[in-house]
Each structure stands twice: as structure tokens, then as C-alpha cells.
Write a structure and sequence with these properties.
- This protein is an alpha+beta fold.
- The protein has two domains: about 1-30 and about 220-245; about 40-215, no CATH class.
- It has helices at about 5-30, 90-95, 110-115, 135-140, 155-165, 220-245; strands at about 45-50, 55-60, 65-85, 100-105, 120-125, 130, 145-155, 170-185, 190, 205-215.
- The strands form two sheets. Strands 3-4-7-10-8 form a five-stranded mixed β-barrel.
Length: about 250
């Protein structure tokens, strides 16, 4: 119908513009705002205290695990990268590791408050947190004793869900034990006990007792992403209903 052409054209423009904005905002959604409010506890380094505790025995997916606590550990940090794991894929499947649910990379102290983190690229591999920059100023300021990659262990569904919802820019508090663990299929992994080590074995392995998001990052890109997604959905539904009713 002739009268429907302006509406059809308008709806098409809304759809295409929304799709374009959705792509751009999705790409930029993890950009740190310059005025990101940092919880004061994020400035403080992790707290570690030796503990004598019996091994924790866990069974998951018919695999028996032995977890040996070494230190009480209290980590507060800003999430810059993460990788969720499944025991059904990759090396976790090969090693029958169903309790290392994620690697979460965080920064604290001056790295969280005194550097433009957008000038540094962070990304997780299966078991590592990597970072690089072409900005010599950012590299000079960055302290590699104020970043850690954390292998998070849990068999608790509520903690697993909380970890599964983590996003870049979250300010988190992780409390539990630094621990080494093994399973009855021959796999074992230790843990770092210092923030000064580097390379293989430098990651902290944490049996998580509490995982708390203190604050979540909001920026204009994430707001735009939400609005543009709503535009894509709304214009698609309008087109579908209009076609079914013979309007378009």
C-alpha cells in the first residue's frame, strides 16, 4: 500500500541505524571511562595469611578432587579480562578438570587508579592473562606486581553462577584459600604465593568461598548498546507484524 511506504522506510532506517550502532557499541562496550569511581578497597593489595587446614575432598562429574589449602586469601581488584572454562572442552576436558570454572584477571592499587587502562590491551588464554601496549607512558606506569591471573575453583552452584556473570570493569572481592589441587586421573596444579613472580606458575589458584561484585562499570557505550539492541528488536517485530497483516 502506498500509505505504508513512509512507515516501512522509517522502520527500515531504524533497523539499519540500530544495527550499526549495536556493532560499534558492542566493540567499545568494555572501554573504561575516565571518571570510573574506584572503591577504596581496590587500592589495597591482596591479604594472604598462612593456614593449617585439612584437605578438601570434592567430587564432580565422577572425578574425585583433593584440594589442599595453603593460605587464607582476600583479593580486591578491577576485572580487566577473564575466561570461563568448561570441563567438557579443550585442555580441561583432557585433564578432567571440572572445578576450575574461570580465570579472572584483575588489577589493583596504582594500576587501577593511576593509568589509562584503555591504552593497554588485556586478554586471557586458557590459563594466562596477557597484556601489552604501544604507549610507553602507560607501560612505564604499569606495575606488574599489581596484576594477577586467578584460577577460580568452586563446586558451589551459587558461586559458580556469580563468577559466570562477571564482566570487564567489575570491581570484585574474592575470598577463599590459595590452594593446590589434584584429581584421581593424574592431574595436579599448584599456586603462586607471591605477587612478584612471572611466567609459568605465576597464577594464583583460589578455592573460592565468597565472590562479591562491589561495583559494576557503566559507560555510554553499554547504554548505547542496550538502546540499539532494543531498536533492532522493536523494528524487527514491527516488520514481522506488518508483513503478517499485509501492511508492508
Amino acid at each position: 500500500m502506498t500509505g505504508s511506504r513512509p512507515l516501512r522506510t522509517l522502520n527500515a532506517w531504524v533497523f539499519y541505524i540500530s544495527c550499526s550502532l549495536l556493532l560499534v557499541s558492542c566493540w567499545q562496550r568494555n572501554e573504561f571511562p575516565a571518571d570510573l569511581p574506584i572503591d577504596p578497597v581496590i587500592v589495597t593489595p591482596p591479604v594472604q595469611r598462612a593456614v593449617e587446614a585439612p584437605p578438601v575432598l570434592v567430587q564432580n562429574a565422577d572425578i574425585n578432587y583433593r584440594i589442599e589449602p595453603l593460605y587464607h586469601y582476600d583479593l580486591k581488584g578491577l576485572v580487566v579480562s577473564y575466561e570461563h572454562h568448561s570441563g567438557n572442552y579443550s585442555l580441561h576436558r583432557l585433564w578432567n578438570d571440572h572445578i576450575n570454572v574461570a580465570d579472572v584477571c584483575v588489577v589493583w592499587g596504582e594500576n587501577a587508579t593511576g593509568i589509562d587502562l584503555n591504552r593497554i590491551d588485556f586478554w586471557n588464554g586458557d590459563f594466562t592473562c596477557n597484556f601489552e601496549t604501544r604507549d610507553p607512558v602507560a607501560w612505564e606506569k604499569f606495575r606488574d606486581d599489581q596484576i594477577s591471573n586467578n584460577h577460580l575453583l568452586t563446586d558451589d552452584p551459587a558461586i559458580r553462577k556469580a563468577i559466570g556473570n562477571v564482566r570487564i570493569g567489575d570491581q570484585v572481592r574474592i575470598r577463599g584459600w590459595l590452594a593446590k589441587y589434584s584429581n584421581d586421573r593424574g592431574f595436579s596444579r599448584g599456586t603462586s604465593t607471591t605477587r612478584d613472580d612471572r611466567g609459568n606458575g605465576a597464577c594464583e589458584t583460589i578455592l573460592v568461598q565468597q565472590f562479591t561484585v562491589l561495583d559494576s562499570m557503566e559507560n555510554g557505550w553499554r547504554t548505547l548498546m542496550a538502546f540499539s539492541l532494543a531498536g533492532v528488536i522493536a523494528s524487527s517485530l514491527i516488520w514481522l507484524v506488518a508483513v503478517m497483516r499485509g501492511v508492508f
